Amino acid sequence: MAEQLPCPSWIWSNNSNVHAAKDRSWFGADYTPINSTVGSLIGGPEIAVVGIGTVDLPVKRDPNATGPQSHGILRLHNVLHIPTIFCNVIGNPISKEYGILTGGPGTENTSGVIFDKQHRTVAYFDPQAVLFEVKLSDPPVGPAVGPSPFVRGAAYYINVRWADSEREKWEASRAANAAESTEVPPLSDEEKQWLKKHWDGEFKFLASHGLSIYKDEDREEGRIILRAIMAHDRDGNHNDRD
């Protein structure tokens, strides 16, 4: 079965408090599976979120430009992966890194532009689109995409709301995972033998440094100290107990 092409429509919605993508293929290497939900300002049932990560959108920078310089990357952080969403959404968090202008000088032949902190245009909204839709780079610069879900003449109200409670759950989970990834590994057999030889075991080694074998944080600190001592010894210095 052929792989389904991703939804092409990335719609700016200033009523959305988060970015959202319909297809997994938009995400980069930092994609992380999560279990969450989002809602809408108009109510209705919540829909499932299955992942989060960074999206680098290959975009056209100028409707009148050609060649390599006419393309750019619009980077979106903490984008939610929502397979059942109607289309991709660029939410209000974009204002943390970019500005948006929907009229006036510099927006000719567009429905608006997105610019960076140096006021350089990085993307624009397609004037032929139904809503404020970012103009993607065509293949081979950008990916092959599927058909637009929008029908001209129909009314749409696109927004995504990620509840603070759901966001906090994700932040707590991310913090816990970060803490786990920085935990000090347990003692190796070689380290246990070293402790036995020089200190008659971990208990006396910890006690000599004012640490307790009955406290996990003390044992972790002890492993850090031990490894520093052993590394020092391997460099030819022998200042252990013997």
Automatic annotation (TrEMBL):
<protein>
    <recommendedName>
        <fullName>Retrovirus-related Pol polyprotein from transposon TNT 1-94-like beta-barrel domain-containing protein</fullName>
    </recommendedName>
</protein>
<dbReference type="InterPro" id="IPR054722">
    <property type="entry name" value="PolX-like_BBD"/>
</dbReference>
<feature type="domain" description="Retrovirus-related Pol polyprotein from transposon TNT 1-94-like beta-barrel">
    <location>
        <begin position="10"/>
        <end position="90"/>
    </location>
</feature>
<dbReference type="Pfam" id="PF22936">
    <property type="entry name" value="Pol_BBD"/>
</dbReference>
